[in-house]
Amino acid sequence: MKTFGVFVTIVCIMLTSLVSPTFAAEEKKNELVKNGKSAILLERDTGSVLYEKNADEKLPPASMTKIMTLILIMEALDKGTLTLEEKVRASENAASMGGSQIFLEAGEEMTVEELLKGVAIASGNDASVALAERIAGSEEAFVEEMNKKSEQLGLTNTKFQNTTGLPAEDHYSTAEDMAIMAKELLKYEHVTNYTSIYEDYLRKGTEDEFWLVNTNKLVKFYPGVDGLKTGYTKEAQYCLTATANKDDMRVIAVVMGAESPKKRNESIMAMLDYAYNTYETESLYKRHEVVDQWHNIRAKQQHMDVVTNESVSILKRKGEQVEDVQSELMYNDNVKLPLKKGQEIGVLKVTSKGEELSEATLTLKKDVEEAGIWTLWKRSMKELVKGAS
């Protein structure tokens, strides 16, 4: 890494004590989750753990598997390789899926947006497979991409065998890994436009009209909850990865292996109550906010906007303050051109008195092309003239 020496001092944030990157140890005595095999509570921007219970225990995730499915769907939409308006034809394989479904018929066509609603609201297994086949060519190839993404995210306790979470041997995850997946999914902030819908309809106005109702009832009954994904099988019992956004602070709460939907929801609400009663955040940068200008003599463009790939905040207990907060931009050495929009070129680190509070990837706002030979020659001549003067 090469530091360009760019320091942004955040004025107006004065503090008396630092916030540790993890808060879990001191809170283990307070058993927030009384029902459930494992659980975790995470602040989304900093990734700070506020509470955990057996968070690294490998368990079947059931339909929470679809969080990874949604990550790859949102990635494809973000890259432009998939559009919401595009129609997808359901295969025999997709239409044959059991469990939660939107009852696709083989050969039926739906838009990507309709199928996305089917996944995000109703947890449709058939909709998940239809989108997987569209993106990767087959469900098997899509599952390979799911596992590759898990590796990229550093999820050492997760392995997928399908896109849906239907029971399968050697298909597992942990509360901690599910929270990290949720954190990744929430980079695509518009995903909550779908996961927050309580009810909607597919095939509206036809004889096959289908009522979608959200499997996550907390989106209606807990203020601020706008996602993400429930799960249930006999083996997994009742699971939920939930997210809420209140007072400009987004948190993620996961419970796996609860005995009933009621007890699962009670555990999630207890964690959310604890988070919002105890902590608050200071927002520093919004996702894709311009934080610097990047220069590369070999680039066609001379001034390129550098942005963060996710929102950046600092976390603190209510009433506390943090002092001497600095943001340091650190760029990768030997960045090779051309570069695509969103490609990593460095990191932004937020520190206080030498302790790291938050980190985000730096990317470029637009594609960057390599300059032609004639342009490079003129620039070189200009630099020689400057050096001689």
TrEMBL record:
Its EC number is 3.4.16.4. InterPro entries: Beta-lactam/transpept-like (IPR012338), Peniciliin-bd_prot_C_sf (IPR015956), Peptidase_S11 (IPR018044), Peptidase_S11_C (IPR012907), Peptidase_S11_C_sf (IPR037167), Peptidase_S11_N (IPR001967). The active site is at 63 (acyl-ester intermediate), 66 (proton acceptor), 123. Substrate binds at residue 229. Residues 1-24 form the signal peptide. Residues 279-370 form the Peptidase S11 D-Ala-D-Ala carboxypeptidase A C-terminal domain. Keywords: Carboxypeptidase, Cell shape, Cell wall biogenesis/degradation, Hydrolase, Peptidoglycan synthesis, Protease, Signal. Transmembrane segments: none annotated. Pathway: Cell wall biogenesis; peptidoglycan biosynthesis. The keyword Cell wall biogenesis/degradation applies. GO terms for biological process: cell wall organization; peptidoglycan biosynthetic process; proteolysis; regulation of cell shape. It catalyses: Preferential cleavage: (Ac)2-L-Lys-D-Ala-|-D-Ala. Also transpeptidation of peptidyl-alanyl moieties that are N-acyl substituents of D-alanine. One of its GO terms (molecular function) is serine-type D-Ala-D-Ala carboxypeptidase activity. Removes C-terminal D-alanyl residues from sugar-peptide cell wall precursors. Belongs to the peptidase S11 family. This is serine-type D-Ala-D-Ala carboxypeptidase.
